[in-house]
Amino acid sequence: MNQASPTVLRCAGRTVAHYLTRPDLALDHSPRPYLHPVTTLGGRPVTETVPVDHPHHLGAGVAVPDVEGHNFWGGRTFVRDRGSVELDNHGVQRHDGFKLCDPDGFVEELSWTASGERLLREHRTVAATALTDSAWVLDLTFSLTNVSGRDLSVGSPATNGRPGAAYGGFFWRAPKEATAPVVFGADADGEEAVHGARSDWVALAGEGWTLVFAGATARTREDPWFVRAAEYPGVGSSLAHGERLAVADGETFVRRVVTVVADGRLDRDGAAALVRKAVAS
């Protein structure tokens, strides 16, 4: 699926992720760089790509369904008073190059383009760090600058009229297993309680693995979480939850999410302890 060899991330002497910079994807998938497979230190895969239920879900990365009407998420677009429709409005995140590329991380420059126009410039930093002998952390920061020459705004299906669908930003698609993963947050249990809430962290625990997602800056923690478990397993942030995110010409916005990738099923205390260590590292 990738036209070039993927970049490999290593942690504690083991390969824990592959990063595909130029995937060979149809335009309606909103082609973009992404991490897949990501694994625990024990080798268990914790990402999924091009699943049957949502073929445009691509491992772990950054995806936004509405940048001034352009779809950088993939699939159909939710249009107010029309619902989800197929539109020829998909954008591409183009890998422009690495400013730094080491075994444990990289710094990447990207261009977000649609209809022949460069809308956003992105500076992305990804790093892998060991936490314990059974857990490591993926630290991802994305910085997006409006280079279009005019004011833009970022939206979501929720801001376009679909309640509960405020996805867009950081997104991690986990593997679908025989039973849905357990979901819990710092002070809540279950998908319904955690979805759409502002919480320091959210955990998804599957068969022999746990992912704990945390906003690593005060601004990132202001974004509510988008959580799915019963329909499919996925967790992301909501850049545009209750209203569109305005991005003035030349303005930059930054988000940083750290993800604890652990073997086994963590409880709340175990997840909280690893998050504290991850954010402090």
Strands, total number:
20
The pLDDT mean sits at 96
- What assembly state would you assign to the polypeptide chains in this entry? single chain
Gross morphology is globular
Low-confidence stretches: none
Strand content: over 45%
Q: How many helices in DSSP terms?
A: 3
Q: Which class best fits the helix and strand makeup? A: mainly beta
Q: N- to C-terminal separation? A: 34 Å
Strand arrangement, largest sheet?
Answer: 8-9-10-11-20-16-15-14
Helix percentage range? under 10%
Radius of gyration: 17 Å
What order do the helices and strands follow?
EEEEEEEEEEEEEEHEEHEEEEH
What does it look like?
- The protein is mainly beta and 281 residues long.
- Helix content is 7%, strand content 47%.
- It has three helices and 20 strands.
- The chain has helices spanning 191-194, 218-221, 268-280; strands spanning 7-11, 14-20, 34-38, 60-67, 70-72, 77-79, 83-85, 92-102, 105-114, 117-132, 135-146, 152-155, 169-173, 182-185, 201-205, 209-215, 225-228, 234-237, 245-247, 252-263.
- The strands form four sheets. An eight-stranded antiparallel sheet has the order 8-9-10-11-20-16-15-14.
- β17 and β18 (234-237) form a beta hairpin.
- The radius of gyration is 17 Å and the shape is globular.
- The two termini are 34 Å apart.
- The model has no long low-confidence stretch (mean pLDDT 96).
Please specify the SSE layout and strand pairing.
Elements: E1 7-11, E2 14-20, E3 34-38, E4 60-67, E5 70-72, E6 77-79, E7 83-85, E8 92-102, E9 105-114, E10 117-132, E11 135-146, E12 152-155, E13 169-173, E14 182-185, H1 191-194, E15 201-205, E16 209-215, H2 218-221, E17 225-228, E18 234-237, E19 245-247, E20 252-263, H3 268-280
Antiparallel strand pairs: 1-2, 2-3, 4-5, 4-12, 4-13, 6-7, 8-9, 9-10, 10-11, 11-20, 12-19, 13-18, 14-15, 15-16, 16-20, 17-18
